[in-house]
Amino acid sequence: MSAAKSDVERYAAIDHRFANTRVAVFAAFVVTLGISARYDWQFAWSSVIPLAVFVALLVRHEGIVRQLEMAKRRAKFYRNGLDRLSDTWAGKGNSGIHYLDPAHPFAIDIDIFGDGSLYELLCTCRTLPGEDTLARWLLSPADVETVAGRQAAVKELADRVELRERIALLGDDIRASVVPEGLIAWGESAVVPVTLGARVIAYGIAAVNCAATAWWFTGHSVWPLIGSVMITALFARPYGEWIKKTTQTVAKTSKALEILALLLETIEHEPFVSALLRDMNAQLNGLTGTPPSHRIKRLDKLVGFLEASLNAFSAPLAFILLWPFQFADRIQLWRIDNGAHFREWLQVAGDFEALCALASFAYENPGATFPAVVSGAPRFTARGLNHPLLPRVSRIANDVSLTTDHPLLIVSGSNMSGKSTLMRTVGVNTVLALAGAPVLAERLELTPLTIGASIRTQDSLQGGISRFYAEITRIRQVVDLAGGDPPLLFLLDEVLHGTNSHDRRIGAEAILRSLAAAGAIGIVTTHDLALAALGDDAALGAVNVHLEDQIVDGKMVFDYVVRPGVVKKSNAIELMRAVGLDV
What is the pLDDT of residues 296-344, one digit of tens each? Predict the structure, then answer.
C-alpha cells in the first residue's frame, strides 16, 4: 500500500510539472506568434519550435495522466483490502441494496444486502454482469457439483493476487456500466442490413464528393461540390433513423466495451488449472477465428469512429465521406457475425468476476475453511463457527449441529445475549458455503439447503399490517418452503412473540412439529421457557441450548458462548433498571 501511495504522489507531482510547463510553452508560442504579427511575418517560423514542444508535451502528458490514474486505482485496490482487514469497510463499498427484495425468504433477515452487508464485504466486481452474478449466487444455493467446481476455482484464484489486481485496474473507473440486458437484446435482435446496392452508391457518392472538393480547391467551380453535397443529403436522410437504431445501445457503452474486452482477454490468455476456469478459457477460445476480446475491441473502435464522425469539428468531413452511414453499416455487419455471442461472453465475464470476489474473501481470511458440501439427508454441523460481518476482535466461535436425528435447536437466553446473532451466523455461513466460498469455521459439513428466516419482521402503517401479522405471514412463507428441494433450513427468532403465551406455545409447537415432519432442520430462539419443554420430546429430536449473561461489578457481561440446556435466568429487570426505569 505504501508503494502504491508513493506512486500516486510521484505521478501527481510529475503531472503538476507537466501542466505548468505546457502553460509556459503555450505562452511562448503565443508571444512569438504575436511578435511575428507585430513586426514581420517572415519570423513566424520561430513560433513553430514552441508549438512542436507543446504538442510533444501534450502527447507525453497524456501518458503521465494514464499512469497517475492507474496508480490511484492501484492505491484504491489496496486501501479497500486494508479496510476489510481492519474491519472499517462497512458503508464504503457497493451495498447491493437494489438487489434486495423484501419478499425474499432470508435476504433481509441475515444481512445479505445493505450497508455492512455480506454483499458489500464480498463485492469487488468492476462490471454489472459480475455484480449480478455475485448477487444471484448469494440468493440461490448451488448443488453439490456446482459448489465443488466453484471451490476449486476460488482456491486457485485466491493466491493469484497479481491477476486479481490486474482485473481491478482494467480501464477507467466506470463501475457497472456494462449493461447485460441491453447488450444481449441488441446483439440478439433482428438485423436490418443495408443492401449491396446502397453500400456501392454510398462509396460512389463519397468518391464524387472527394473529387468535387479537390476540383474546388484547385481553383475551379464550386458548383460540382454543391451538387454532390445535395445528392449526399438526399441519400443520407432516409438512413438517419436506421443509424440511430443501429448504434444507440452500444454508443452508450464505449468505455464499458473496453473493460469487457480487457477482462475477456485476461481469461483467454491466463493458464488455469481448475476445471471451471479451464472451461471458461475453452469457451472463449473455442470460437473459430478472432478471439472474443479482439472482436469486442473492433466493435469499440467502430463505435469510437462513429462518435468521432458526429463531432462538430469532424462533421463536415464525415458528411462528405458518409462516415455515419459507413460505420453504422460496419457495426451492423459486426452484429450479424458476433451479436448472438454477447450472452455467452457476458456470462463468462460475470462468473469470473464473482469467483474473483470470493477469492479475495478467501485470501483476506486465511483462517477460513472450505466446507464439505455433500449429498444425503439434510444436515449442518459446524465446529468453531464465526460471523464474517462482526469485527475480528468481537467474534466468538460456537459449535452448531443440526441433523435428521436432532433437527431442531431451541435457543433460550437473556436479552442481548446473542441468540439472533447465532442464527444469522448459521445463515450467512450457509449462504457463503452454497455460493462456493470458504466459511468462518474450523470445520463445516452441510448439504444443499434452502434458507427460510423470520428474524427481522416489521409492521407496516401504510399497509395496515401489524407486527404479529407480518410475522405469521413470513412464517407461512417459511413453512411453504418445507418439503421442497433442497431441504429447508429455518431460522425463527422469538417465534410468535407478538401474541399471548398460551397461543404462542400452542402455535409455535404446531409450527415446529410440522417443519420437522417435512424434513426441515433449523433453529428457534425463545424467551418462553414453556417452548423449551419440547426438548424433552424424544420423538421430535429437539436439543436445548442457551446463552447467558453474568453480573460483574454491577454490570451485565455477555460472553456469547452457547451452552447446553435451558437458560436459568432472565435479565429483563436489570436492563430496565440500566436505562433508568424504576422497577
Answer: 889 888 887 777 776 666 677 777 778 888 888 888 888 888 888 888 9
562, containing H or E segment: none
- Which three cell numbers, joined as nine digits, stand for 345? 461472453
pLDDT digits (tens, 9 = 90+) for 149-197: 999 999 999 999 889 888 877 755 445 455 667 777 777 777 777 788 8
> How far apart, in whole angstroms, are the C-alpha atoms of residue 232 and residue 224?
12
* Backbone CA torsion sign across 91, 95, 98, 102: negative
Say whether 372 sits in a helix, a strand or coil.
Answer: strand
Handedness of CA 83, 84, 86, 90 (dihedral sign): positive
Q: What are phi and psi of 488, to 5 degrees?
A: -90, 135
Q: Report which residue type is found at 483.
A: G
Q: Give the Cβ contact number of residue 179 at 10 Å.
A: 18
- Over its C-alpha atoms, the chain yields an Rg (Å, rounded) of 33
Measured distance CA(279)–CA(261) in Å, rounded: 18
- If we measure between CA atoms, which residue out of 433, 396, 431 comes closest to residue 417? 396
- In one-letter notation, the amino acid at residue 550 is Q
What is the end-to-end Cα distance of the chain in Å, rounded? 55
DSSP state of 389: T
Residues linked to residue 488 through DSSP beta bridges, in sequence order: 450
